[in-house]
Specification:
The chain is an alpha/beta fold. It has 24 helices and five strands. The chain has a domain at 392-516: 3-Layer(aba) Sandwich (D-Maltodextrin-Binding Protein, domain 2). Strands 2-1-3-5-4 form a five-stranded mixed sheet.
């Protein structure tokens, strides 16, 4: 009984201590929570979330470091025929980082990616800190506490913070831009902070061009207010950094400025219906779900009520969302830059709604119940995603094979609809890849051709993927590769298995690796 009372008293002490710090030092508590979960995500949330955050950033820059050009983006590469419309600034930063890591003898791809995740997590702390400070400056500490803890611990924030998604990486620079605008409460505003705001917005644009709607919306407001000095400073700061970075990089690589940007715009509009086409209201449903109801509805309603009071935030976010709602190609990640600002204005607006509404004052329990439900669901999702190893089978397969030298060719045979991509970055080599589904008539010709193109192009390993027995696939492959022997099996991670159960279209890849013993007689442990 004494032990129980002692434990209970310690729990009460810790709860009271946390409550004391939350009331007196909320920003410290928020930043500690943000740091903790981003560190956990950097350690445990390996792999990648979507194809773009690996293959358009890591695979390209990693190949440049090794003297190869995986995506054939650069002039002089075998399959390159000019600018491809891909931003070279952000991958270029990773190229420099990987060069530095090689210089100090950090060569293991998993360690490199841990450092990449750690740096991105640290960068995202800017969003949390200045998101809190912006909310505090606009509406005081009550709203700032909620905004800050949501930016720190919304279920997707730590997980997205350590990903290489340009939509997420651009957010801290947007927040910094707004901070330099809002840090002055007096009128007229000083020019230098507005110039700095423009520079931060320009950096965000260099990472994700669609963020142009943020400085554009602010510029429109300045235009209608006839704030010519501020408009000039904002435009000068933004244009200077865009010309210097985008124009300078393309001038150096292609001999003309904005070559990639021009091609990017052409591709966006010529292929606007070539990907995922969804109705205009899709993002309303996305926001309502991702932000977890009923709190998502609180945020959206609160955001709508602040259009007049905080037009300088409201209008750019609205323009950004209207453009993406109009544009046929829709993916959830496209609207990530709007999330922090929706949360910021949404919470401020909702606090004013509940503070002046007789209904919510009489039904405080209902409001509290909505928040309790939100935090239960959010905490479960937060823990799942923070500790998730996405695309584990693909990553671990390549990392496993990295122990073998001189892998010139691989074959992937998928027992399903289509073979998935395997990240050569984790292999540390850039071999040729043959891939085909086993249900295709091309499988036999694929294997036949691979063994008739000379000994250099004969597959060193065959990766069988999919579900169910692989025996039939193995027998067929051995007709062409008689020295094929079983090597190991790599299983998918928890998150991949869970997503597959929710939707069978999501790959639940088990990878069976077979070694061509003609080239590697013994297994390397």
């Amino acid at each position: 009984m004494i032990g129980y009372d002692s434990l209970k008293s310690r729990q009460l002490f810790l709860i009271n201590l946390l409550r004391k710090y939350w009331n007196e030092y909320p920003l410290v508590v928020i930043m500690m929570a943000a740091v903790l979960f981003r560190l956990l995500a950097a350690i445990f949330s390996m792999g990648w979330g979507m194809l773009d955050d690996h293959y358009l950033v890591i695979e390209s820059s990693g190949s440049w470091t090794d003297g190869f050009d995986y995506n054939a983006w650069l002039p002089g590469s075998k399959d390159n025929h000019g600018p491809t419309g891909h931003n070279l600034f952000y991958p270029g930063i990773h190229f420099l980082l990987f060069q530095f890591l090689n210089l100090i003898h950090i060569t293991d791809p998993q360690w490199k990616m841990f450092i990449v995740r750690l740096l991105h997590g640290a960068l995202s702390l800017i969003t949390v800190y200045f998101g809190y400070r912006l909310a505090e400056r606009i509406d005081g500490k009550k709203s700032a506490k909620i905004v800050g803890i949501l930016l720190a611990l919304f279920w997707f924030m730590p997980w997205l913070s350590v990903r290489n998604l340009v939509e997420m990486v651009s957010v801290p620079f947007l927040i910094l831009g707004y901070w330099f605008i809002f840090k002055q409460s007096h009128q007229p505003r000083k020019i230098l902070p507005i110039l700095m705001a423009g520079i931060w917005f320009g950096i965000a644009f260099n990472i994700r061009p669609q963020t142009v709607f943020f400085p554009l919306g602010i510029g429109l407001i300045m235009l209608f207010q006839r704030s010519w000095r501020e408009l000039f400073a904002l435009s000068a700061g933004s244009l200077a950094i865009v010309i210097l970075v985008q124009g300078g990089i393309d001038l150096m690589i292609w001999g003309r400025p904005f070559a990639e940007m021009q091609e990017y715009v052409n591709v966006c509009f010529s292929e606007r219906t070539g990907y995922i086409n969804l109705p205009w209201y899709n993002y309303i449903l996305t926001l309502s779900g991702m932000l977890i109801p009923p709190v998502s509805l609180y945020i959206l309603f609160g955001f709508a009520t602040r259009w007049k009071r905080e037009l300088i935030i409201f209008l750019p976010v609205l323009l950004f969302l209207l453009f993406h709602s109009y544009f046929p190609n829709k993916q959830e990640r496209f609207i990530i830059p709007a999330f922090p600002f929706l949360i910021l204005l949404g919470i401020i607006g909702w606090n004013h709604v509940t503070g002046s509404s007789r209904f919510w004052q009489r039904n405080h329990g209902l409001l509290k119940g909505g928040w309790i439900f939100f935090w239960v669901i959010n905490t479960i999702a937060l823990l799942i995603f923070t500790f998730s190893y996405s695309k584990r089978a693909q990553v671990e397969s390549m990392h496993y094979l990295s122990r073998y030298p001189d892998i010139q060719y691989l074959v992937v045979l998928d027992k399903g609809d289509s073979p998935d991509l395997f990240p050569k970055f984790y292999l540390g080599q850039w071999p040729g890849f043959y891939s085909e589904t086993t249900g295709s008539h091309q499988t036999d010709s694929l294997l036949f051709a691979s063994t008739r193109k000379g000994i250099g192009k004969t597959p060193r390993f065959v990766l069988f993927t999919g579900e169910g027995t692989m025996q039939e696939m193995v027998i067929k492959a051995r007709n062409y590769l008689p020295y094929l022997v079983y090597e190991t099996t790599i299983y998918p991670g928890l998150i991949d298995r869970a997503l597959h159960k929710l939707n069978p279209h999501n790959k639940n890849m088990v990878v069976y690796i077979y070694r061509n013993a003609y080239f590697y007689p013994e297994k390397i442990e």
